[in-house]
Amino acid sequence: MSFSSCYIGRFRRTFAQIHSTIAGRLNRQISDCQKPVHRKCTWMNTQARLLSSRTQHSYRRKLVRNGEKKQLVICIEGNIASGKTTCLEHFSKTSDIEVMTEPVSKWRNVQGHNPLGLMYQDPSRWGLTLQTYVQLTMLDRHLSTITAPVRMMERSIYSAKYIFVENLYRSGKMPDVDFAVLSEWFEWIIRNIHIPVDLIVYLQTTPQICYERLKERCREEEKMIPMEYLEAVHQLYEDWLINKTSFKVPAPVLVIPADHDLPKMIRQYEENKEKILLGRNA
Ligand SMILES: Nc1ncnc2c1ncn2[C@@H]1O[C@H](COP(=O)(O)OP(=O)(O)O)[C@@H](O)[C@H]1O
Ligand SMILES: Nc1ccn([C@H]2C[C@H](O)[C@@H](COP(=O)(O)O)O2)c(=O)n1
């Protein structure tokens, strides 16, 4: 087999795996969000109908998650090492809440490769690789079937793009072409797939506190993260969720100050529990 046919064969297999992962999570139904349409059709038919609906009508139809019902989806957002996983651990003890951490273990090991580690070693070369995989795995998380009345998940496909891809690009570590490809993927996803988020809980920290917690956690890949990186991520989060000057915010935001020690954080989580369970920020 020639090098090129072997390469094309591998590309086709990889594409088929990604396609089946996403397609498997979808209901193969189309909905126009306001008026759900309960018609079964194949993936290909769905695409055809999406295309025709777009040319004939002004409203947009989107693919929906398997068995999508009225469960609440709460995304926990915050800087690296701000305490998101610790927050989820606390709420995992509450009945009626399903918690879902970020798929970091996948980002550290995809078929024996470590795109997270590679990205920190050489962001210009591997930023696209990591962020493409983050986008896929986060989409997979968003589309997975919810098994409790409330889902709390760590971060979202939105912060992956608005914070981390944006940071790589703005800091000059992601080439224009990589940013353009990732942006088109992202825009396609949010235009065509319904990704409901009911509330964003923003754990607001100072970069200095995150730096201390990062050092304490001591994840191998993150040893070279400088303070400036956490400051840049912090600023992007503030502009998105507090100042609301950068990107569209997909849900109301509940801000929890998160520089405090663990006992105080737990008190704050308990004080905010009702709001969170109702998906409200006030
Ligand atoms: N309120 C807190 N005070 C002190 N240390 C904390 C607090 N919350 C979390 N940590 C510690 O900080 C590190 C990062 O927390 P983690 O929950 O993993 O953050 P994230 O998931 O946001 O990256 C961990 O070692 C954790 O034990
Ligand atoms: N889109 C993303 C999301 C996360 N990361 C990095 C940042 C951390 O090193 C790690 C996990 O984040 P944490 O849960 O500890 O805040 O993954 C990234 O580079 N891109």
UniProtKB/TrEMBL annotation:
- What EC number(s) would the UniProt record show? 2.7.1.21, 2.7.1.74
Enzyme class, one word?
transferase
SUPFAM superfamilies, alphabetized? P-loop containing nucleoside triphosphate hydrolases (SSF52540)
Q: State one molecular function term (GO).
A: thymidine kinase activity
Keyword flag ATP-binding: yes
What UniProt keywords are attached to this protein's entry?
A: ATP-binding, DNA synthesis, Kinase, Mitochondrion, Nucleotide-binding, Transferase, Transit peptide
Q: List the CDD domains.
A: dNK
Where do the Deoxynucleoside kinase domain residues begin and end?
A: 74-270
Taxonomic superkingdom: Eukaryota
Q: Where in the cell is it found?
A: Mitochondrion
The protein's annotated catalytic reaction(s) are:
thymidine + ATP = dTMP + ADP + H(+); 2'-deoxyuridine + ATP = dUMP + ADP + H(+); 2'-deoxycytidine + ATP = dCMP + ADP + H(+)
Give GO cellular component annotations, separated by semicolons: mitochondrion
The UniProt entry's GO biological process terms, in alphabetical order, are:
carbohydrate derivative metabolic process; DNA biosynthetic process; nucleotide metabolic process
UniProt record similarity statement: Belongs to the DCK/DGK family.
The identity of this protein, by name, is: Thymidine kinase 2, mitochondrial
Report the source organism: Conger conger (Conger eel)
